[in-house]
Specification:
154 residues, mainly alpha
Length: 154
C-alpha cells in the first residue's frame, strides 16, 4: 500500500500521459472508490482502498511466503542462466560473420594467386641462368674469409 501522487505516477509512466490527465484519472478512481485520498500538509497523496481486498488468513500468508521463496529461487537461477548466455553471446559478437569470412577468403585467395603467378614468373626467368649451388656458396664464403684476413693483416 504505497502512497502516490500525480507527479510520481506520471514519472513512473515515463511521461506517456500528462499530469493533468493523471489528475483526472486519479480523481475518477477516487470517485469510484478504488483509491483513498490523504492530505499531508500541502500535498495530496493517494492510497489503494484496502477495504476492497479480502482479508488473508495465516495459512494463505504461509503459502504466499513459500511461493515467494520458490519464485525468488527460480529468479536467481534464471539470472545466472542469463549471465552465462550473455557471456556466450558476447563471444559470438567478437567473431566474424559468414559474409566477412567469405570476403576474407576471397581476398586471400586472390593474394595467393598473385603470389603464385609471381613465383612462376621468377622461376621462368631464373631457369635459363646458372643457379649457385650450396657447395659453391660455401667455397665462395671460404674464399671471402681468406681474402678478408689477408686484407686485415695489411
Amino acid at each position: 500500500n504505497r502512497p502516490y501522487n500525480a507527479k510520481i505516477i506520471v514519472d513512473n509512466l515515463h511521461g506517456q500521459i500528462k499530469i493533468a490527465q493523471a489528475k483526472k484519472i486519479i480523481q475518477q478512481l477516487v470517485e469510484d472508490g478504488d483509491l483513498t485520498v490523504k492530505a499531508v500538509k500541502k500535498q495530496t497523496i493517494y492510497l489503494t482502498n484496502q477495504s476492497k481486498f479480502e482479508p488473508v488468513s495465516d495459512e494463505q500468508l504461509v503459502e504466499m511466503e513459500k511461493d515467494i521463496q520458490q519464485l525468488t529461487k527460480l529468479k536467481n537461477e534464471k539470472s545466472q542462466q542469463y549471465k552465462v548466455l550473455k557471456a556466450r553471446c558476447g563471444s559470438f559478437a567478437s567473431q566474424l560473420s559468414d559474409a566477412e569470412i567469405r570476403r576474407q577468403i576471397q581476398y586471400y585467395s586472390e593474394e595467393k594467386q598473385k603470389k603464385e603467378e609471381k613465383l612462376a614468373q621468377l622461376q621462368l626467368e631464373s631457369s635459363g641462368k646458372d643457379m649457385m649451388v650450396a657447395n659453391d656458396m660455401i667455397k665462395l664464403e671460404i674464399e671471402f674469409d681468406k681474402s678478408y684476413l689477408i686484407w686485415k693483416e695489411r
